[in-house]
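Table 4 source record.
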Amino acid sequence: MAKENQILKALETLGFETSGGISYGVYKGYAMDMSPSDGYYTLRIAAKLPSADKALKKALKADISQAGAPMSLSEISEDGISFIMRLNKKSPYEQQETVILDAAVSILRGRGFAPMDACAICGGGSPDSLCLAPNFRPVHSACIKNMHEHTKDSIEHNEQNGSYLTGILGAILGALLGLVPSILTAFLLDKIYAILFAVVPIASMWLYKKFNGKNNKASIVIIVILSLLSVFVLQFMIVGISFRDEYNISFGQAMAVVMEVFLNLEGFVFVVKNSLVELFFMLLGIMFSWQYICRTGASVLKESEYLVSTLRPNPAYGGFSSCSCDECSSETSDTPET
């Protein structure tokens, strides 16, 4: 962590700012940011590039090799270009970073790739600001601020009008729908895949929100409990279908037999013991989907506030101004889902 802070803070000598483990700023007209990634550091530059093809990648790799800077090409996308920076302790980080940034800018200018000049939100021209959205790139300050206001309004509306009752009904339906892939693989392939159990909490939370459930920390508890209980529904279905096929009885009759087994203490204990693997898989599924089910209104608002906090005037256009795009000028635009 200390090394990471030193590497990021070294960019502050070049006019960058550091926040949330990311350094961002403008260097020789290009908005860019740097953050740690898989043991290395990724430098993302907001530049206008054509669609990536083998010829372009090959040409850029040749440019990097000729520049002799300690970096390599990572990705070319509609957001710009990114490089992997390979820093060492033999020389000051500021010196290494300056060499890399100079090389990157020289390569972009040499290829005629100008800084990005369209808003990342509405696509309009003359973006007056820069913002981490999600990489540091041009935006209209009005677009970001309107998004933030819409997010706040949506969260306040949910707090005042959301319902645990309708949310739980949606969550139950979502959990049942999320079980379908596991049921199908169990009978068609005679296998159960742990990754499919992640579908249950995701589907459950998605329909919880669609049914206007209150999007707070309590919603996480509800989804986790329903996801774990869904394991027994899965066992109920599997055993019921097995009884139907084995004893050649109707599905309704098979379900009645299974219900008797479940309601019997000895039978219920037997079912629980035989569900331990599935319960473990469901816990893994919850872990896989944790980032999604933890997106409460409070966390979404915090992300929105952080986005606004990274707004900086765009030197290319002289600072904050208004945006005339339809999204920002409309007074009755829809609020985003939280």
